[in-house]
């Protein structure tokens, strides 16, 4: 692998505020939509009452323990850490005129701590959460006024951190709103397609406004989108399977098309027309959308297959999406199919489509780790998974794909998004906490910690081609 990764490749890891910070009401923070999903994004929406609690309320207490965690990331040699700003720490209800200074000050401290070690922040503006006040009083992203509230928030943090943060993302896995609308756009799960796509449109306009604001306020910075990279293959070479695969891939590529090209593609116009979907798009919206992102970022965990006759096959749930399993691939403990070559394929697909730099901002293996009697954790399964995916990243770079960096999901154990579990662990660093919230929260290095440290220090030269 020596020489394939660029000299200034951004190696690191990725977390999200609502999955690591805890301190869910500290220092003036308001309630977010995530706070009302104690069992994860597929769980019931539960109003908060006095005295209740959920595992995300404390999470791994990153809010108070971040200096220790940043030091561990630095020990691995991180060049970059992706995290998010909790919108409700800055605007607790979402519609305030002035921001919450205590929330702004927390991220000042966090970014200053990262700077001590030369770790660059990659900051997501909205990662699977928004102020619940905007849902309660305005109907979330279904209301056009939310665009202005988001723009105010974005401009506030750009101004505050313009000298500390040079890489930004707008909405995490923006395409997931099609599958979990409350998490994505603050709408009820049973909302019809017209309502969901209208809310998505408002979010796309807000994303473009944030891009424009970033270019104005942080001229030397870069801002990207973030897609759930759910790449699909045809189950067979039947033309019908191929056509259905193209259609389903366009379901998520549509978001990248708008954010990278600046307009709605023709195939979506047909989709709206044939499905009776009404989306109000103003001429001002069309002008706003022309402000396009600087790079494409995405998550990749698994691939799947598509058939024109899905009722004949069982589906497997992966990262939000249901897919027909690929008979040629093995799966993880959670049934997610493991496809390293799919990452190389996806990188080439996205680069061919957009000709913009790419950033892999989530990739990892969720597994149940075992702590041995001597305190060690031998997670060779995680090492093998990440090694094989990074070998394919190197191959894509050799193909000519421009890859900015790689931030594994989650470098430290955190609360999973899908079901709010601690037992589904991704980290190089173990956190002593279980699904019931019991544990000391002590941090412990796994075997993969030292492996990833070597990968970063060698700029990928230590990777092994196990094919």
Describe the structure.
The mean pLDDT is 95. The chain is globular. By secondary structure, the protein is an alpha/beta fold. The chain contains 14 helices and 14 strands. The two termini are 13 Å apart.
Throw out a few tags for this protein.
14 strands; alpha/beta; eight-stranded parallel barrel; 467 residues
- Give the neighbour order of strands across the main sheet: 1-2-3-4-5-7-11-12
Mean pLDDT: 95
| Rounded radius of gyration (Å) | 21 Å
> Structural class of the secondary structure composition?
alpha/beta
Number of strands: 14
Distance between the termini: 13 Å
Summarize the structure.
The chain is 38% helix and 13% strand. With 467 residues, the protein is α/β, with parallel strands linked by helices.
Would you spell out the secondary-structure blueprint of this structure?
Blueprint: E1 10-14, H1 17-20, H2 62-76, E2 80-84, H3 87-90, H4 101-116, E3 120-126, H5 132-138, H6 145-161, E4 167-171, H7 181-185, H8 193-217, E5 222-228, E6 232-234, H9 239-261, H10 266-274, H11 283-288, E7 295-299, E8 304-306, E9 316-317, E10 322-323, H12 340-354, E11 358-362, H13 380-399, E12 403-409, E13 429-431, E14 443-445, H14 447-457
Parallel strand pairs: 1-2, 1-12, 2-3, 3-4, 4-5, 5-7, 6-8, 7-11, 11-12
Antiparallel strand pairs: 9-10, 13-14
Helix pairs in contact: 2-4, 6-8, 12-13
């Amino acid at each position: 692998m020596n020489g394939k990764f660029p000299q200034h490749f951004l190696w690191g890891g990725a977390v999200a505020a609502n999955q690591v910070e805890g301190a869910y009401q500290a220092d003036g923070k308001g309630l977010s939509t995530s706070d009302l999903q104690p069992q994860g994004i597929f769980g019931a929406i539960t109003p908060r009452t006095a005295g209740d609690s959920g595992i995300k309320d404390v999470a791994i207490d990153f809010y108070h323990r971040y200096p220790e965690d940043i030091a561990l990331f630095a020990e691995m040699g991180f060049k970059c850490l992706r995290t998010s700003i909790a919108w409700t720490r800055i605007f607790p209800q979402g519609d305030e005129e002035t921001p919450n200074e205590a929330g702004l000050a927390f991220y000042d401290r966090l970014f200053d701590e990262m700077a001590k070690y030369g770790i660059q922040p990659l900051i997501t503006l909205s990662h699977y959460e928004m102020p619940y006040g905007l849902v309660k009083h305005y109907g979330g992203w279904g209301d056009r006024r939310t665009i202005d509230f988001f723009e105010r928030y974005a401009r506030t943090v750009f101004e505050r951190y313009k000298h500390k943060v040079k890489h930004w993302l707008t909405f995490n896995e923006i395409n997931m709103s099609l599958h979990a609308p409350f998490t994505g756009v603050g709408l009820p799960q049973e909302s019809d397609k017209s309502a969901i796509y209208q809310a998505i449109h408002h979010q796309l306009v807000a994303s473009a406004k944030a891009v424009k604001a970033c270019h104005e306020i942080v001229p030397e910075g870069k801002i990207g989108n973030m897609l759930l990279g759910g790449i699909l293959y045809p189950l067979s070479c039947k033309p019908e399977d191929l056509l259905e695969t193209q259609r389903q891939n366009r379901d998520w590529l549509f978001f990248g098309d708008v954010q990278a090209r600046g307009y709605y593609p023709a195939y979506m116009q047909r989709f709206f027309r044939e499905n009776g979907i009404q989306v109000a798009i103003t001429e001002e919206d069309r002008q706003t959308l022309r402000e396009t992102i600087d790079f494409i970022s995405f998550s990749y965990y698994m691939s799947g297959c598509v058939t024109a006759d899905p009722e004949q096959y069982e589906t497997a749930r992966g990262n939000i999406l249901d897919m027909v399993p690929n008979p040629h691939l093995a799966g993880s403990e959670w049934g997610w199919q493991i496809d390293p070559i799919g990452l190389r394929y996806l990188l080439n697909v996205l680069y061919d489509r957009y000709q913009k730099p790419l950033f892999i901002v989530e990739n990892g293996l969720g597994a149940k780790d075992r702590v041995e009697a001597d305190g060690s954790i031998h997670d060779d399964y995680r090492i093998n998974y990440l090694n094989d995916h990074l070998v394919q990243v190197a191959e894509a770079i050799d193909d000519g794909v421009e890859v900015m960096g790689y931030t594994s999901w989650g470098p430290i154990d955190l609360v999973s998004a899908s079901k709010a579990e601690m037992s589904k662990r991704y980290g190089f660093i173990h956190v002593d906490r279980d699904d019931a919230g019991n544990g000391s929260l002590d941090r412990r290095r796994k075997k993969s910690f030292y492996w990833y440290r070597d990968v970063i220090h060698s700029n990928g030269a230590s990777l092994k081609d196990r094919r």
